[in-house]
Design brief:
Blueprint: H1 2-13, E1 19-30, E2 40-56, E3 61-66, E4 73-76, H2 90-101, E5 109-115, H3 125-140, H4 147-162, H5 169-176, E6 181-186, E7 192-196, E8 202-208, H6 220-234, H7 248-254, H8 261-285, H9 289-305, H10 312-322, E9 328-334, E10 341-347, H11 351-366, E11 371-375, E12 382-383
Helix pairs in contact: 2-3, 2-4, 3-4, 3-5, 4-5, 6-8, 8-9, 10-11
Length: 390
């Protein structure tokens, strides 16, 4: 695959790529819609991601190409850029703009992107593009950013340049991911713990609903606002900065402050989900995948009934998984929801059986097929190393 990319680079730019980089996608094992509420999440990097091949050019232009999209961008080097409609290249363009805003002197580059993350699936293809671009520019121009600064830079692209009010989890996970580790990340302090996540006889099944969705046009920002309303109500009596500053027991004592029943449901999910992450870290550290799986199911039920970001497609996947306890330890939607993907812990030797069964069950109920993938827990962003990606 990498050889084909190098050949395509040469065809497109009439020169050889001089550098290659890789940034993974991510799944969130548990802790959903927590990142913008100052709580704990538990993402991990996956083995799908974004490949970036780069070479300098003498034309003083950024020439951006993607194997996945037809849109191209040839743009002269200037002091800053503006978002252009909703094209894929806005993500690297935003990163370039941040480097320029910080006063770094850049030069023209030819850049070819290829992603094997399903687009719009909730596996953080956008964060993967942002982080691989930021990492590459940092390396090529010796900009001196730390990895955490690259994460914050990429989050700025998502929030300000693109205009999506997402938290920092996605960029953090694809930058700091470690093989066979889940990252228990405090989204307020950015302190994190790498939790052993040895899947043993299991692997991560990733089931893409294939439901069309545009996250920036979904109800994602509405959920952010509802959480802000809940926080404002609780702050009339509690000295807190985020919903996740309290546990479920404390919330129970003060939930009367939230008079809107919908907003109360949203806050209940967030606070209970934050507690589930703490329990999940304990079960994973003890290598107790079956107990962890129960927490996955509880998380999905909460996201479906309290936070209402699931839907029939994702619920169908979780429902099917529950009928196969002999091969599935747990399942839940992952990512922002409104379509996208679910994950399941599936026994390795039964993955083909699971894939066939979920495809038939889902297709019969929904009317079209899902896409089913298998992944292990992979590494974060870096210079592409063929040995690591064999």
């Amino acid at each position: 695959m990498i050889d084909q990319l190098h050949q395509q680079f040469k065809t497109l730019f009439n020169s050889d790529a001089q550098h290659s980089f890789f940034s993974p996608g991510r799944v969130n094992l548990i802790g959903e819609h927590i990142d913008y509420n100052g709580g704990l999440v538990m993402p991990c990097a996956i083995t799908f991601g974004t490949y970036l091949l780069v070479a300098p050019n003498t034309e003083g232009k950024f020439r951006l190409r993607s194997v996945n999209f037809e849109e191209q961008l040839d743009i002269p080097l200037q002091s800053s850029y503006q978002k252009k409609d909703s094209f894929w290249f806005n993500y690297p363009l935003g990163v370039i703009t941040h480097f320029l805003n910080d006063g770094h002197e850049l030069q023209g580059l030819d850049m070819l992107y290829y992603g094997d993350i399903p687009i719009g699936s909730g596996l953080s293809s956008s964060a993967s593009i942002e982080v691989v671009t930021a990492f590459a520019l940092n390396q090529l121009f010796s900009a001196g950013y730390s990895k955490l600064e690259l994460v914050k830079l990429s989050k700025w692209v998502e929030n300000v340049f693109i205009g999506l009010n997402s938290g920092i989890m996605d960029q953090f996970a694809v930058a700091f991911g470690e093989a066979e580790k889940a990252l228990m990340l405090n989204c307020d302090t950015l302190e994190y713990e790498a939790v052993d996540c040895h899947l043993g006889d299991y692997l991560l099944a990733i089931i893409n609903t294939n439901k069309p969705r545009k996250l920036a046009e979904s109800k994602y920002n509405e959920r952010v606002r509802e959480c802000q309303q809940a926080l404002a109500a609780l702050k009339t009596e509690l000295d807190i900065e985020h919903l996740c500053d309290i546990d479920a027991a404390t919330f129970k004592q003060h939930e009367h402050l939230i008079t809107d029943p919908i907003v109360k449901k949203r806050a209940t999910h967030v606070i209970e989900e934050n507690d589930r992450v703490k329990l999940a870290a304990r079960e994973l550290a003890a290598n107790n995948l079956l107990e962890f799986g129960k927490l996955m199911y509880a998380s999905h039920d909460s996201l479906s009934k309290l936070y209402e970001v699931s839907g029939i497609e994702l619920d169908t996947i979780a429902d099917y998984a529950k009928t196969k306890p002999e091969i599935v330890a747990g399942a839940r939607m992952t990512g922002a929801g409104f379509g996208g993907c679910a994950i399941a812990l599936v026994k390795k030797d039964a993955f083909d059986e699971f894939s066939k069964g979920i495809t038939e069950f889902y297709t019969q109920k929904i009317g079209y097929a899902p896409s089913v993938y298998s992944s292990l827990i992979g590494m974060g962003v870096g210079v592409y190393n063929e040995a690591k990606h064999a």
